[in-house]
Design goal:
- A hairpin with a 5-residue loop joins β5 and β6.
- Among the domains are: 69 residues, no CATH class; 170 residues, L,D-transpeptidase catalytic domain-like, CATH 2.40.440.
- About 4% of the residues have low confidence.
- The longest helix is centred in the first third of the chain and has 19 residues.
- The chain is of the alpha+beta class.
- The strands form five sheets. Strands 1, 3, 4, 5 and 6 form a five-stranded antiparallel β-sheet that branches.
- The protein is elongated.
- The protein has five helices and 18 strands.
Length: 345
């Protein structure tokens, strides 16, 4: 009886213990006590997943539209003040004309007729010229140059022209040049300076004042027994003419032949006395004078006064087709379209 009670108590205690022991312990106990042949039940304890607290999605802000950068404006450069006028003496090769006279102030001219002072000088890099001024030669800043002629070259004719646009030719023996003048605003204005050859000893070119009387595009020079020819000739006194360098007699009376048969040895004497009394010129200058004297009223005055120094003519090429073996050829200045010098660079 006592053994039965003991067994009952033991069973109750076992049941009580089973109720209080944690599942994990029971599982461990059953794993330890289970027989190898029995299936073991594995109990997995799942941990509750913690859900993250949702965060508010930020509202995107509008991307600011870039504003156009204003283009830089050019800073205007300040306008420099006008260059000052610098008074200078009138050059030695000029003399007062058109009613102007030299005052006691070097470089200042005065015209009583116009009641005007003008001063010669420069402004900045400009060439010397005349500006309206006061009696001391002062010129106001920004003043424009004087627009009328008040000086002419010292070798210009002393006599005033008789009419507007009158024309004249001056032949200066000491400097072997011909200068063409045209009347403008009551004074002679230089148009062209040309190198020449005048008469040698015992064949001097006559001095004095003459008038152009005849013109010839192509002219027999010398005599029929000893002929030569000239292009663009203008007669100013009996047997004296202005014309090109003489042309070979072999050219005959055909002017077209004459262009390529000019005496190059005589051409090279331009600038020195060499003729029989006529005035020799380059073909280009002879043609220019021929056209300048179209109305045949042009005066020619030959003087022993020193004139300007003319420019030397272009050099001769001593070979064909420019020059032949006899020394005849093309004048380098001849404007004829067949002139081979036109192709020389």
């Amino acid at each position: 009886m006592k053994s039965f009670r003991f067994a009952i108590c033991l069973l109750l205690m076992t049941v009580l213990l089973a109720c209080t022991v944690p599942d994990a312990v029971k599982t461990s106990s059953s794993l330890q006590t289970a027989a190898p042949s029995e299936q073991t039940e594995i109990i997995v304890i799942e941990q509750p997943t913690v859900q993250p607290t949702p965060q508010a999605t930020p509202v995107p802000t509008d991307t600011p539209v870039p504003t156009d950068t204003p283009a830089p404006t050019d800073t205007p450069e300040p306008t420099p003040p006008p260059a000052p006028f610098v008074l200078k003496p009138v050059p030695a090769h000029l003399r007062a004309a058109n009613g102007f006279v030299q005052t006691q102030k070097a470089g200042v001219l005065y015209s009583e007729k116009r009641n005007r002072y003008v001063a010669y000088g420069t402004v900045g890099e400009e060439a010397g010229t005349f500006y309206p001024s006061d009696a001391s030669g002062a010129v106001a800043p920004g003043t424009a140059p004087y627009d009328l002629v008040c000086t002419v070259p010292v070798y210009a004719p002393e006599k005033s022209p008789k009419s507007e646009n009158a024309r004249t030719l001056g032949v200066y023996l000491p400097t072997q040049c011909v200068v063409a003048f045209t009347a403008k605003d009551g004074v002679w204005v230089e148009e062209r300076v040309m190198i020449c050859s005048t008469g040698r000893a015992k064949h001097e070119t006559p001095t004095g004042t003459f008038k152009i009387s005849q013109r010839y595009e192509y002219k027999l020079l010398g005599t029929e027994e000893s002929p030569c020819y000239g292009l663009w000739a203008c007669r100013f006194k009996t047997h004296h003419l202005l014309h090109s360098i003489p042309i070979s007699a072999d050219a005959g009376r055909n002017a077209e032949n004459g262009h390529s048969m000019v005496s190059m040895r005589k051409y090279e004497k331009l600038g020195s006395v060499a003729s029989d009394g006529c005035i020799r010129l380059t073909v280009a200058d002879a043609k220019w004078i021929y056209e300048f004297c179209a109305d045949t009223t042009v005066e020619v005055w030959v003087t022993k006064t020193v004139g300007p120094t003319p420019t030397k003519p272009p050099a001769v090429i001593w070979e064909a087709p420019y020059t032949d073996k006899n020394g005849y050829g093309w004048d380098p200045t001849d404007p004829h379209p067949d002139n081979p010098y036109h192709s020389v660079s």
